[in-house]
Amino acid sequence: MKKAIIFTDLDGSLLDHRTYSYSAASPMLATLKKNKIPLIPVSSKTFDEIIILRRRLNNNDPFIVENGAAIYIPKDYFSNQPSKTKIKIVKNDNSEFWEYSTAKPRKYWVELLSEIEMEFKNQFLTFSNLGDAGIVKYTGLSIEQAKRANERNFSEPLLWIGRQSKKNDFVNTIKSMGADIVAGGRFLHVIDPMSCKGSSMEWLKNSYIENEPKNNFLSIAAGDSANDISMLNIADFSAIIRSPVHSRPKIDNKKNCYISDQFGPLGWNQIINRIIEENFKTKK
Known about the structure:
Threonyl-tRNA Synthetase, Chain A, domain 2, 23% strand, 2 domains, single chain, 13 strands, 35% helix, globular, Rossmann fold, 284 residues, 9 helices
């Protein structure tokens, strides 16, 4: 049986770039819920941020944080616990997740950035430098939202404030030191090169296959930015969401590639609906 799994970027895709609202995507979200199609957030956001969003969405599926650095699966979601996972307990409600990650910790990337701070003096601001109040200033988030955004375990975001001519030098330098750097909607994210949205998507898809081998699981990846390219390239169906603030990501895999006409969650609703209608049987 052919079954869809949707892996979606959040900011600029399912969530509006400016308001963070998903209301325009509500019709399709209801259809997915009715048809028990898993909706997997795959984001640069933290565990704490996505936990809050999942509650608002009434979503009980797995999710992927910090640009692919870690995967979280609700305990007992599958009949068997995936290998190499450990238990993570949410403090305020004692809910439990299986966690899978091979990424180096945030501290490692913060220390690496400090090594080149003088070489690129006054060219960038990290989340660690900004602190919660600084994050509020540059994002418009509330202080509570900023705190959750700063609760990182595997990566370090930064805001580039220097000359564009120096930006390429910075990216090349950080990569030569063993890091990777990806561009999100507003920030650059220093991450482990062994972790990305695409590899985490494939790992999680394989977990579905292992637990339900009779089903033919097909992945749908939705995204609007360069940091979504790794999953858009390897998904069975790619949904590129147009952005009002930047050009759409260029991917190598043109097969089963869909591009929205609208921006953000409106475009997300349009293109996910089209992919599902054309390729899967669903209840309305």
